[in-house]
Write a structure and sequence with these properties.
The structure is a single chain. By secondary structure, this protein is α+β, with helices and mostly antiparallel strands. The protein folds into two domains: 244 residues, no CATH class; 134 residues. The chain has 14 helices and 17 strands. Strands 9, 10, 11, 12, 13, 14, 15 and 16 form an eight-stranded antiparallel sheet that branches. A hairpin with a 3-residue loop joins strand 10 and strand 11. The longest helix has 29 residues.
């Protein structure tokens, strides 16, 4: 049966050319992207959902927006060697070819691409971190208003002598990925049954609401875990999380998407039309396929994500060790200091939330703190019976901040590039001394 479907597909006009173009994209993908890059949780789930989300909603067209995206992102991938640019260029190229040779695909595909993009992992870590701190504060405020004795410090909540950590499971990649990707799947099925599609603005509002449902779900989950003192080793800890996801996210999303598909969707045709492809159009399609292939070989997996230039780091008379990836390290008997340059305003920084986990450490407490009139992030790390105390912020030699929007906007306006400063010590009082020395006495200088 599947073989007959494949033969029928290939027998339609120009489908063999489409297969050749998709093969060029596949070869480029193999050349550019290592296997681990596409085996992240959100990427794997996204690939599984593709057959259910991709469906034809109109006649074939020359999708100029996708074409411009392919060219711009392909050039950016070769200039900056960021794999995410190539991943997005590759996805848009496939949509461009399907739009032209088969028919217009549903706009939901673009959202699926964003949510399954490997860079979504880092984005969720960056966005999830301040949200977790905010959820901790909201939980404390709600429980205090209910008359309970609660103390909150960063992502730690104390009640009746028991501490609860609002970690990534409470507002991180897994919950956000599952919510958004399942929402794409649910609304895609309603639209397919109704033979409709939604306007871009409606889709944006829908997924903003899904994000809001996810935040509320996590807030209620944290409150329940704290009130009933369900620690991570309690089986109900995970059960409560799944129930909150089902009741406060998936059920509202099901009925909301059903109503949107019925009342806000535009009637479309799911049958593709017969097309005539001129020689110039064939040439254009082949040029795009070769362009994507060439970008892939420039972005081969053995090549690093761009050459990051080391910052000029001076910390008293201490020696500075230059490490791969543009990282500078200063080490003494008391501290370990990393200076990690951020090459561009759109770059993902080497956040300690990821790096220390890669070294086998677990964050037991994270909070905002003031040191020498500067805001910094602070955390307590645990590995077995060993504990470390760490702090980090962003610094460009003149300005220090922990706000993502501030340093990215400054770099976009032409300010000196920022570096992520991460200092770690075995003793918290020692860390405080060095923080004061660096932030108040300006002992650390970078250019």
């Amino acid at each position: 049966m599947n073989l007959n479907v494949a033969v029928e597909f290939l027998n339609k006009p120009y489908r063999k050319l489409l297969v050749v173009l998709l093969c060029l994209c596949a070869v480029g993908a193999v050349a550019a992207l290592p296997l681990w890059y596409v085996l992240t949780l959100n990427c794997v789930i996204g690939f599984c959902l593709l057959p259910f989300v991709v469906h034809i909603t109109g006649k074939s067209r020359l999708n100029m927006l996708a074409l411009v995206g392919v060219v711009v992102l392909g050039i950016l991938s070769m200039v900056y060697h960021h794999k995410v640019f190539y991943f997005l260029a590759l996805a848009l190229a496939i949509i461009f070819f399907i739009d032209f040779f088969v028919g217009k695909v549903s706009g939901l595909v673009y959202f699926l691409i964003v949510f399954m993009s490997p860079v979504f992992y880092q984005v969720s870590v960056i966005l999830g971190f301040p949200i977790r701190l905010l959820l901790s504060n909201w939980t404390g405020a709600i429980l205090k208003a209910a008359g309970m004795q609660v103390e909150v410090m960063g992502n730690l909540i104390w009640i009746n002598g028991i501490d609860f950590s609002v970690d990534e499971a409470c507002m991180g990649l897994n919950m956000l990925v599952v919510s958004l990707l399942l929402s794409v799947f649910i609304i895609a099925q309603h639209l397919r049954r109704q033979k409709k599609d939604l306007r871009l603005l409606v889709m944006i509002i829908f997924f903003c609401l899904v994000f809001l449902f996810t935040v509320v779900s996590n807030l209620l989950r944290i409150i329940l875990l704290v009130v009933f003192q369900l620690l991570p080793n309690n089986p109900w800890h995970e059960v409560v999380g799944l129930l909150c996801l089902f009741v406060y996210v998936l059920i509202p999303v099901y009925f909301l998407s059903k109503k949107l598909a019925r009342n806000a969707g535009n009637r479309v045709s799911d049958s593709a039309n017969l097309i005539t492809v001129s020689l110039s159009q064939k040439s254009l399609m082949f040029m795009i396929g070769v362009f994507v292939l060439c970008c892939g070989f420039v972005m081969n997996p053995d090549r690093k994500e761009g050459s990051i230039e080391h910052a000029e780091v001076m910390y008293g008379q201490l020696p500075v060790e230059k490490m791969p990836g543009g990282i500078s390290k200063v080490i003494t008997n008391d501290i370990l200091l990393y200076v990690k340059p951020i090459p561009d305003f759109f770059s993902m920084e080497h956040t300690p939330l990821i790096c220390w986990k890669g070294s086998g450490y677990e964050f037991k407490g994270i909070r905002k703190d003031h040191s020498a009139n500067f805001e910094v992030y602070r955390g307590k790390l645990k590995k077995g019976n060993d504990y470390l105390y760490t702090a980090w912020w962003y610094f460009n030699g003149a300005n220090a901040t922990i706000d993502q929007f501030t340093w990215r906007t400054d770099m976009l306006k032409g300010a000196n590039r920022y570096c992520l400063i991460n200092i770690t010590s075995k003793d918290e009082s020692t860390l405080n001394e060095y923080l004061k020395e660096i932030l108040e006495n300006n002992k650390l200088a970078i250019k």
